[in-house]
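In response to a reviewer's request, we include the raw inputs and outputs for one of the modeled complexes. The four entities were modeled together in a single run.
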Amino acid sequence: MPAAPARHRTPSGDISAALLTAAEDVLDREGLAGLTIRAVATEAGVAPMGVYNRFGGKPGLIDALLSRGFVLLREAILGATGDGLERLRNSGPAYREFALTHTHLYGLMFNHPDDVAPSEETLVNAVQSFQALVDLVSDAMDRDELIPAEPVEVAQSIWAAVHGAMSLEIVGIGFTADRAATFQRMNDAVLAGFSRS
Amino acid sequence: MPAAPARHRTPSGDISAALLTAAEDVLDREGLAGLTIRAVATEAGVAPMGVYNRFGGKPGLIDALLSRGFVLLREAILGATGDGLERLRNSGPAYREFALTHTHLYGLMFNHPDDVAPSEETLVNAVQSFQALVDLVSDAMDRDELIPAEPVEVAQSIWAAVHGAMSLEIVGIGFTADRAATFQRMNDAVLAGFSRS
DNA sequence: CTCCCCTATAGAACGACGTTATATAACTAT
DNA sequence: ATAGTTATATAACGTCGTTCTATAGGGGAG
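The model returned the following structure tokens for the whole complex.
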């Protein structure tokens, strides 16, 4: 009989992390269409069954990607420098940077397939991303740099504007030459709407 | 031999329209996951091959949906009542109404699959949707109800904010009780950022 | 160190998908 | 009525997500 084919076995604990990292890479590189169970498993050097053992299937794997995406988004927002209103203003470009660095993941986070039901953990991470923005708004209000109002309401408006700008920019709908400058202007205009004259 | 199976044949000219209408219905009813060639053809009472004869395949069919979506969006914007700044303000809720009525189509318009390359006609319709908003902005500026600026820049910012709000509302990311009221407040805040004090 | 159980592995299989190819039958224009 | 265009039914191919089987590698108990 022929020599037994050398069969490698990945240590249990490393499988989830390997699959998740591989999924991120495949998604960034080839988009959602290229994100197949077989492709991710191959990229991770793991058997396709691992996706089912660890994530319960493709929707579970995508949910894990979303969860990680919101963690990264929160870190991007918190990475903004400055204080008060200045920091809030700087969080806009930081948000933009994240979206442009992970366009496919970003698109997935705000427009996931119907069969992907965000898990509790994912929802918590999404809320914490939003909370990071709320905190920046609250701080600016405490410093009297913004009109007093409900911070959650204001943060929701700012997030909508910033997310909308990135969604349009990623899909290629833009009618101005300098995208970064247009983003800045929109960011400033929205903040101006909530600022003291 | 058995009786020939009664084979119905759809008149040529009606096939495209039947397929497109069926695709709209299936998309609205079952989402992108349910939008299969076979399902659309069955819904239209037409052979699956019709999609290839008329639209060149599934990406072509989706492109036709996008094209029609932007026409509907333009009509929704133009349907806003009032004059000048008031009409611009009213176009927000009209936009929201369209997005909520066709959530799946709306999501597709601003986050289409990688293999769907928008046709020239679709791009023209998208530009015309945007132009409708630019015209409202220009009119409000002409009436001195907005700060003088480049209408395209201002319209781009407004669209970003409104689109972002609907994108978040559709995906279920919202932290305020009354979605319609929050939308109104954001709409007003953005316009305030471009308005005369 | 040895044995055993847990679990990752390879591989086949299923149904559904987008797509292509075939041959037949229905409409349309002459 | 006839000929050509074109929609039809049907089968097939490869790939997808998913499930099932049997095998074999690694970690823990003795």
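As requested, we also summarize the result in words. The CA atoms of residues 59 and 116 of chain A lie 5 Å apart. Residues 1-5 of chain A have pLDDT under 50 and may be disordered.
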